[in-house]
Each structure stands twice: as C-alpha cells, then as structure tokens.
C-alpha cells in the first residue's frame, strides 16, 4: 500500500510525525486520530478516498507514538497536552477549525478536544468509543470499584511499568494476538487480560491485517516501547479533574460509528450529551476502520455529504 511519507511538525513543545493526503485540497482539513496501541497507519484505507472527496487529510502519530516526541513526564500526556497538540497542528497549517475523526483513545482525545476547544472543531466523527459521561467519581477510581484491579485501565495506573515491560518483551506476539477479528466467545479469565494476551503462544480468531501491515505496527513499537502510549491511560483521573468546569455538551454535528461485536459498550445516553449525533453500526469488532475499511469509508463520506452537500461519494 502506498502510504504517504511523513513530515515532522513542531507543535506545542513537541514534534509530531504527520502523514498527509490531498494537500491540493487546502482549506478543507480533516484530522484522523488513532487509538491504542495503534499508529497513523491504521487510517491507510481511508486517506486516499477522503483526499479524492476533496479533503486535506492530516493523520498524526500523536505524542508517544511512532517518530513523534515521547516526553518523559506522565502528566505530559493529559488531555490538555493531547488536545493542545491538535490545536497547534491546526495553527501550523493555518486552519481555524477542522473535522476531527477519532478511533478508540483517539476518540477520547477528540471528545476532549471538542469540549476544551469547541471553536476549533466543526464536525466530529468517532469510532468505537462513545462520549464518556464524567460522573461524580474519577474514572479510574470508578473502574477499580466496579471492574477490579486487574482491569487494564486500573492495572496501568496502579502497577506502572509492569505491563509496559511485558509488552516490550513480546511486541510482535502481543500485537499479533491483539489485532484479531471474529473471536470465539470465552468466559472472562482471571488476571490482567492484556498481559496474558502478550504471553499467549497461539492467537484466536482471524487476523485483522496482512503480515506486512502488522509489521508496520510491530516495527514502530519495537522502536518506541509502550510506555509513552500507556501514559495516556495514566492521566485518566487527571483528565477527569481538568474537565470539571467544562460545558459537557457536544454541540457539533457528530457521527458515531460502532462495531456491533466491539467489546466496548455502546452508550444508551449518547444523545443527551451529543444532541446532534447520527449513529452507524457496522458488523465488526473493535478495529473498525481496519476490519471494515470500505464500509467505514463510505459511512464517513456519506455522512459528510449529508452535512455540507459538497462531498463526492465514490
């Protein structure tokens, strides 16, 4: 696959590795934000189609990933820094605002960006992770009470460095075992599921991508390790505090794309916090834009066409 060559862009005190398509379409930016443990390469199936539809496509490796900066301080990965990077990226290209697309943790960042910097976001498209209601209890504290100390969000926070080391030692095996689809139903097992996954000799289900595509992810994390990316999780309660005084309602037109077999739960209160939302559900698991690339691309293009009437759908 002919994936674009990156450039390093200085933003917000760091440098981001940025991949672009459709630069000729300057003035119609769409920013694609990957999840964990991913890479801008996860948007490889969407970039050319969005560029062909008239968009300037900007896909950064966010801080902690790929050849982007990896600050040492855990707090450098909170929502203020992550959203600040994206605001500074718009400033770099001279854009007042853009459409932002996020998957998984990228969706969390896009939700947070839209709350903290609403004037910089004109439309929201998020995959897998719906809007997370803030509630009265910090998120990690709540997860620990409900899901226990072995739940990966909690484990990453309460036992810093433990999972990082296991993933670093088993990078290929972990990512090979993680990027699967059509998984058989299993009863939940005791212990930290991702550590067990990294140590499992045999993957379940079917591969999401080819060996050569998987090699892009493996090479990136063999180079960087996992700590920078996991530090995003270690700021979840800090983010809860940072969002305390923010208007919690997302007013922008929004498309939410779910995978019907994703283990992340759909939200039954999404429209209360995102009143201008449309919802699409695809027959797939968690890795939506990679499991169902054409369907994801068409869902995005059709929704954008409905919003502004100017996008040409292939």
Mean pLDDT: 96
> How many strands in all?
10
User: If strands are numbered along the chain, what order do they take across the biggest sheet?
Assistant: 1-2-4-3-5-6-9-10
Indicate the proportion of strand residues. Answer: 15-25%
Distance, first to last CA: 19 Å
- The Rg value, from CA coordinates, equals 18 Å
Q: Which residues sit in consecutive blocks of at least 5 with pLDDT less than 50?
A: 310-314
Count every helix, treating DSSP H or I runs of 4 or more residues as helices. 14
- What characteristic shape results from the CA principal axes? globular
Measured as a percent range, the helix fraction is 25-40%
Summing up helix and strand content along with how strands pair, one would put the structural category as alpha/beta
Largest sheet: 8 strands, mixed
Order of helices and strands: EEEHEHEHEHHHHEHEHHHEHEHH
Molecular structure report:
The protein is of the alpha/beta class. The strands form 2 sheets. The chain has an 8-stranded mixed beta sheet with strand order 1-2-4-3-5-6-9-10, sandwiched between helices. A two-stranded antiparallel sheet has the order 7-8. It has helices spanning 44-52, 79-93, 105-116, 139-147, 152-158, 162-169, 171-178, 193-199, 211-224, 227-230, 236-242, 270-273, 288-291, 293-308; strands spanning 7-11, 14-21, 29-33, 56-61, 98-103, 121-127, 180-181, 206-207, 254-259, 277-282. α1 packs parallel to α14, α7 (171-178) crosses α8 (193-199) and α7 (171-178) packs across α9. The chain is globular. The chain contains 14 helices and 10 strands. Helices cover 39% and strands 17% of the residues. The longest helix has 16 residues, at 293-308.
